[in-house]
Amino acid sequence: MSTPPRRHFLAAALAALCLLGAAPGAHAAGEAPDAMMARLSADVLQTIKADKAVAAGDLAHIMTVVDSKIMPNVNFIRMTASATGPGWRKATPEQRQKLQNEFKTLLVRTYAGALRQVSDQTVEVLPLRAAASDQEVIVKTLVKGRGDPVQLDYRLEKAPGGGWKIYDLNVLGVWLVDNYRPQFAQQINAGGIDALIASLTERNKANAQNQN
């Protein structure tokens, strides 16, 4: 499990990811990934600050905002498969769907908790080092607010229909997928994919009780 400081920084990363959501299809054709991230962070940060339900901590509303604005910009199948590791290839289609659902619920609740902490943060997108032909890029950002800036890196892939999708993020040297992979591997080694699904289900139930 993560150490308390690491959880704090991960929450900051997830909060920043919340700032980067937008409705699908909102990107301009041929828009560079760093330009997209800069535009989305500015637009959605303004929306979050003006949303009274978010400021009031309305969890159901926050989860709706997160689910509708963030997830369309994430290749969640790839993120889940990467976190699961070799066990993903052995999972049945039904197991994969259940695993995605539970992992998504876990992350959305984490995003929701982080969203409630968004106040005076701003996001600075650093210069992109990538070729125009690259299909995968890393966009580096700095989240600025109270205290020291938090450096965040995002892995994005070129989507088949154009635009970009996030499939991993890094906060202070730890990638989100890498953070979950050993936890998932431990459950899979103990009892297979079903054990991992059961573990995530229990965590989600506990999180729901704590957040109510």
List keywords for this structure.
212 residues; alpha+beta; Nuclear Transport Factor 2, Chain: A; 57% helix; globular
Please tell me about this protein's structure.
The protein has 212 residues and is of the alpha+beta class. The protein has a single domain (4-211), classed as Roll (Nuclear Transport Factor 2, Chain: A). Helices cover 57% and strands 15% of the residues. It has helices at residues 4-18, 33-50, 52-55, 59-69, 76-84, 87-90, 93-115, 176-211; strands spanning 122-125, 136-144, 150-158, 164-171, 174-175. Strands 1-2-3-4-5 form a five-stranded antiparallel beta sheet. α1 crosses α7 and α7 packs across α8. 33% of the residues are buried.
The CATH superfamily is known as: Tgt2/MlaC
Write down the overall geometry.
Answer: globular
Strand content: 15-25%
Name the CATH class: Alpha Beta
User: Segments where pLDDT lies below 50 for 5+ residues?
Assistant: 1-9, 21-26
Largest sheet: 5 strands, antiparallel
Q: What's the total number of strands?
A: 5
Q: What do we call the CATH topology?
A: Nuclear Transport Factor 2, Chain: A
The percent range for helix content is 55-70%
